[in-house]
Amino acid sequence: MAQSNRSKMRRQWRLHKVLWNLSGGRLGRRVIGMPVLELVTTGHRSGLERQILITYVVDGGLPAIVGTNAGKDSDPAWVRNLRAEPAARARWGGAWRDVVGVELDGEDHARVWNQVVEANPGYATYQDGMSRRAPIFRLEER
To answer: Which domains, ranges and CATH numbers included, belong to the chain?
Structure first.
């Protein structure tokens, strides 16, 4: 993805985050036809809380999030954070939950990846441009 497109996407997510925070998570619950959740992880180096908004699909009644990093050939920070400390907090459907990020592999990864691409075919374009496989985490309630 061209740098200008990545910059545009970042600006859009920043605006989305402002609306989300001002409304207490009531506005901006969907983006590009997919539901959105707020994820708070612990920084793998800093130990500080890190908050992101991210789209998800539902897998077994629980959200599953994908680390495409908008097609960049490195994992997003939240992936590194969950790998170092799987315990996190997430807000979806208006409620906060304590969660554990469980990285999916094998058939589970393939099944959820197919759901993601069905929900938004743009994800397949991201994967085509990366040399890494996009990680997928299911957020299981603690």
So the answer is: 3-141 (2.30.110.10)
